[in-house]
Amino acid sequence: MAAALLVARREVRLLRRSRATLGAGVLLAAVAWLPAVLLPLRRGTLGIAPFPEILPLQIALAAVVLPLLALLAGAELFAGELEDGSLVPALTLPISRRACFAGKGLGRAATLGAVYLAAFASAGLAVAAVRGPTGWQDWVVVTGAGLLVSLSTGGIGAALGAAGSGRVRAFGAALVTWIVLVFALDALLLTAVVALAPPPPGAIGEHGHEELAAPRSAGGTEMPIHDPHARAAEPEEPTAGALSARLLALSPVSLFRLTCLAASPDLRPRLALAMPGGTGAGLWSTIVAGWLIWLAGPLAAGLRRFLRADLS
Amino acid sequence: MTAGLRFAGVGRRFGDRVALRELELDCPAGTLTGLVGPNGAGKSTALALATGLLPPTAGAVLFRGKPVRPRDAPETTGYLPQRSAFHPALTVGEVVGFTVAARGATDDGRRRALAVTGLGEVSGRFVGELSGGWVRRLGLLSALLGSPALLLLDEPFVGLDPETHDRLVGHLEECLESGATIVMASHDFEVLDPFGPTIAVLDEGSLRLAARVACGGAGAGGPLASSRAVYRHALAADPVTAREGAR
Q1: Which end of chain A is flanked by fewer CB atoms within 10 Å, N or C?
Q2: Min CA distance, B4 vs chain A (Å)?
Q3: Cβ pair A208, A219 in contact under 8 A
C-alpha cells in the first residue's frame, strides 16, 4: 500500500507538470460549459441555459468526448513510460508491479478526476446561480455518470497500453476502440433497442395492438385483456424493456446514457416509452452490475497485461 | 563460499532469436563477476534476467538459493541498466527522494550514495536538463542506495569522470567486503581487474569460459592473469576446449 501511494504521488506530480493535463482541463471545461452557453444563442440571446434545457445536449456531448479523452489518457498511462524505459528504475526498487499499476492508476484517476469535477462543478454552479437550481439533481447524475464512463474507458485505455507495445500502437488501439464504442457498438445497441420497442401509437390501426395490449379496467381491477388467466405469483418473463436495458449495459457509452435517462425525472418518461417494463427496480440492478463489470473488467485485464509485459 | 547469484541452465529467446542459452554460472557472495563478450553476446540479457524483470524461457535464476521471483525485482537488488532512463519532468531531488522512500534507506545511506555519485549539486535540476553522464550517475545512485545485497551493473563506469570513477571503485570494494554479490557487464577490462573478479565470457548467447582472474591483475603471469587474457583465451578456443580449460 505504501509503495502504491508512493507511485501515486509520483504520478500526480508528473501530471501537474504535463501540458496534456492542461489540454484535458480545457476540453473538459468546454464539455461542461458549452451546452449552457450555446443553447441561448439559438434564441439569439446571450446567457446561460437552465439545467433541464442543457441536459440532452450535455449527455450527447459527454458520450462522445469523455470516452475519447479517457481512452487516450489511459493508453498513455503505461505506454509512454514503458516505451521510454523510465518505469524500469522504479520497478527495480522494492515496488511490485501490482503496486506500480495501482499507484499509477490511482494517481492519474485522482488528478484527472479532480480536473473533471472542477470543470463540471464550476459550470453547474454558474447555471444554478444564474438560472436557478431546478434540475440540479439531474446535472449531478450526468456528472457522476460521466465520471464512471471516464473511469471505465480510461481502464480500457490502460489495458491497451499496458503490454508495452509503444505509444503509437496504444493510441491507435485507443482510437479504434473509441470508434467501436461510441459509434459502431452504440449504434448497434440503440438499433436493437428500437427494434425491441413497441410500435408507436396509431401505427397498427384504430383497434390495433396498442389498444389490445393496454390494461383494461374491470370493476376496479386492472387486468390485461390478452391474458385473463394470468396469476400474479407466476414468474415473469423478462420484458422487452428489461432486455433492452441489458443490451445497453454491453457498452459503457450506452450504459452512460441509460444511467442519465434512468435517474432523471424529466427524461425517464422518454425511456419508459422506448423500454416498456424495463424501468422498474430491475433497471438499477442492471445499471449497477453493468458499471461494476465495466470498471473492474478493464482494470483486471490491464493488470494482467502489465504483469506479463517484458520491461527490460 | 556463501551462496550468491546462480544461473541454473538459464535461457532466453526473443521470438526466433536465442539471446542466451543454458547459462550455468555461480556468482558467490562477496565476489564480483564480470560478464564480458562482444556486442550482442547476451550480457545485458543475463543481467535483466537476474533482476526478474525479464523472465527466462528456460532454467531458473536463484539468489541465496531461492528462485528470483519473475517480473518483480527482489528487494535486495540494485540494478543499473545499460540505458538509464528517468522521467524528464522529475527533478534529481525528487528521483532521489522516491528511491530513498522505496528502499527505506537511512539518511546515512542517502548521504553516502550522494557523495559517491556527486549528485548533490544538481538536486534541483530536472532530469530532462541533465547530460548523459549525470543521468548515468542518477542510475548509479538508484542502484546503490540502501546497500543492496545483489548489485547488477551494466557498464557502470561509462561516462563517468575520473573522480567519480575512483569513488565508485572504492564504494564497490566496500560492498564486496560487506558480502554483497556484484555482477557487472563491461567492455572495459581494466576496471574489472582490481576486484579480482571471476570473468565469464559470453559469445552469441553461450558461455565460452568462466575463470577467476589472479589477484594482482595483468602482468602477474599465466594466461588467466587478467580479464583481457581470459577474454582472448576464451574467444580463441572453441567452446568445448574453453570450458575444459576453465575447469
Answers
A1: N
A2: 18
A3: no
Structural contact between residues B203 and B233, judged by C-beta atoms closer than 8 angstroms: no
Q: Contact at 8 Å (CB) between A254 and A190?
A: yes
Using a CB-CB distance cutoff of 8 angstroms, which residues of chain B are in contact with residue A91?
53, 72-73
Domain B5-76+149-246, CATH class in plain words: alpha beta
Contact with chain A for residue B117, Cβ under 8 A: no
User: Which of A93, A111, A304 should be substituted to probe chain B, the one whose Cβ sees the most B Cβ atoms within 10 Å?
Assistant: A93
* Residue (of A90, A30, A66, A249) closest to A157 by Cα position: A66
Helices A252-263/A51-84 angle, 10° precision: 150
pLDDT tens by residue, A44-102:
888 899 998 999 999 999 999 999 999 999 999 999 898 888 888 888 888 889 999 99
Please tell me the pTM assigned to this model: 0.83
Within 8 A by CB and 6+ apart from B87, the residues are A14, A81, A84, A86, B127
Count Cβ atoms within 10 A of the Cβ of residue B4 and give its class: 0-12 exposed, 13-18 middle, 19 or more buried. buried
20-79 in chain B: CB under 8 A from chain A? 44-45, 48, 51, 53-55, 71-73, 75, 77-79
pLDDT in tens, A216-247: 443 344 434 444 444 444 445 567 778 888 88
Write out the H or E segment, with its range, that includes residue B185: strand B181-185
What value does the mean pLDDT of chain B take? 84
Grid cell 449527455 is found at A59
CB B99 to CB A94 under 8 A? no
Q: How far apart are CA A287 and CA A258, in angstroms?
A: 8
For helices A51-84 and A136-161, angle between their N-to-C axes, nearest 10 degrees: 20
Digit-coded pLDDT (tens) for A10-54: 999 999 999 999 999 999 999 999 999 999 998 888 889 999 899
Chain-wide mean pLDDT for chain A?
Answer: 85
Question: What distance, in Å, lies between the first and last C-alpha atoms of chain B?
Answer: 17
